[in-house]
Amino acid sequence: MKFLHLATLATAALALPSDSLAARQKKTCTSPKLRKSWAKATATEKRSYINAALCLATKPSRLHISTHRTLYDDFGYIHAQLTEPQRIHGEPVFLPWHRYFVQVYEDALHSCGYTGTAMYWDWAADWAAPSKAAVWDPVLGFGGNGSDSADGNGPGKLRVVNGPFRSLHPTYWNTAVDPHWLSRDWAPGHPEGGQAEMIGNAYSPTVMDEVNSWTVYDKFWPALETSPHGAVHAGIGGGRGDMGPVSSPNDPIFFLHHAMVDRVWWQWQQKDPQNRTFAYKGVRNDGQNATLNDVLPMLGLAPDGIVRDYMDTNGGALCYIY
User: Which CATH superfamily is domain 30-321 in?
Assistant: First the structure.
């Protein structure tokens, strides 16, 4: 299933925190940090993560954009600008670009006092009943679905009415300036047609086995991007939620979703580290062959990266495991 709506550097005063790309590249990764599943995190860890994510909406933007003022909106803006036209989806850079993007988000959380790592939602474990997953807890999670009864949100959106993120007010919908309350539109299940809620059947064990059966990168990444990745976006965002449009980082659950995508890639790499850690192959959307020297653009949110530096989570610019 396709992903719905396939989806200047800051001033010195707004510089990246000390654990930024430049600082990390000078370190040797001897003690990689462990990224946890949200379901296995402690209540204290969850509260700390949530508070830091909310803090991003109080931090000044790193971009020189007149239409928004906060670091929170920077993430949705950058993702949308790089998706229309397609520069980070539907081509080999999809996995390393989003790996770097999640790391930039983790660094931003650190600037808000968070001391942990990025966490992931193991949607592959929750595929049979995604709506009951721990990530949707109204207190120690991301809140639930949007509501038709919520007013004041403009046409075509379902406002999230519970949970710690219910007061988030994103600036962008796709690439347009369209301020609105955080919205979700969970895809309902249709058992009579074999369709699970939130399109869970598209990230079932059978599907994940098929994805992981590919032994070469240019077969593996399209399989992962199309069905599991795209289905989770569509299952949460639908047509009236923030996870549907290309401004999908509006919804903080985006980063737990993409940490899980990254984990699936990391596990695939670990099955054959010698041959898969730096396996990177395919044709870019501009018709050129992909190389490890391809650029990972961040448009001023963080320094541009290079694919090679983000292939190994235990080296280069990174230092974590799952």
Answer: Di-copper center containing domain from catechol oxidase (1.10.1280.10)
